[in-house]
From TrEMBL:
GO terms for cellular component: plasma membrane. It is a multi-pass membrane protein. It is found in: Cell membrane. InterPro entries: LeuE-type. The chain crosses the membrane at residues 6-28, 40-62, 74-95, 107-128, 148-169, 181-202. GO terms for molecular function: amino acid transmembrane transporter activity. It comes from Paenirhodobacter hankyongi. Keywords: Cell membrane, Membrane, Transmembrane, Transmembrane helix. It holds the Pfam family LysE. This is Amino acid transporter.
Length: 205
């Protein structure tokens, strides 16, 4: 097995492991897949964004944050605020209820509105900057001269994950035809995001 392949497989495993955990971005992709609204565009945007962020990490973002510790701190508190706000939104949706997977009701949001939302959930996600970018950058340093292969492996994992999540979500459509299922999903997202925000505020990730 060549060193490039070893690096690519390492990047794939690490990249997949970092994005599998449910979070604001993944919950939104899941929701769009369930509603079958702009599914391809959302999955593609997330995959391309991950590729850019992975490139930043491999190119040395970890070294930048080491030289500018205030940047990591600013990102941490920005992440706390963002996640707290989104957790409140999800909790309110779970409390109010009324959502259901019914393509015959209501107008679908525009592509621009959907992409604006997923952009915020992607680029304001603290785990992207404090975990994925920095960690991938640090680990890629273990494969000198193979940063491109490592990054390509991680980016491939993102493409496969986001498209599988977006298009696989329709298999759950019968379950999410019931409003109670949406309330449980929103409640779970709210709890997860609130716990992540709390860990960030306490200095963890």
């Amino acid at each position: 097995m060549t060193q490039s392949l070893v690096a690519a497989l390492a990047g794939f495993r690490l990249g997949l492991g970092l994005i599998v955990a449910i979070g604001a971005q993944n919950a939104f992709v899941l929701r769009q897949g369930l509603r079958r609204e702009h599914v391809f565009a959302v999955a593609l945007f997330c995959a391309l964004s991950d590729a850019v962020l992975i490139a930043l990490g491999v190119a040395g973002f970890a070294a930048v944050t080491a030289r500018l510790p205030w940047l990591a701190e600013a990102l941490r508190w920005g992440g706390v605020a963002f996640l707290g706000w989104y957790a409140i939104r999800a909790a309110r949706a779970a409390w109010v209820g009324g959502a259901a997977l019914d393509a015959g009701q209501g107008a679908a949001p525009s592509l621009a509105a959907v992409l604006a939302t997923v952009a915020a959930l992607t680029w304001a996600n603290p785990h992207v900057w404090l975990d994925t970018v920095v960690l991938l950058g640090a680990v890629s340093a273990q494969f000198p001269g193979e940063g491109l292969a490592f990054g390509a492996g991680a980016a491939t994992a993102s493409v496969l994950f986001f498209f599988a999540l977006a298009y696989g979500a329709r298999l759950l459509a019968p379950l999410f035809a019931r409003p109670a299922a949406w309330r449980l999903l929103d409640a779970g997202v709210a709890l997860i995001l609130a716990s992540v925000a709390a860990r960030l505020a306490l200095g963890g990730v």
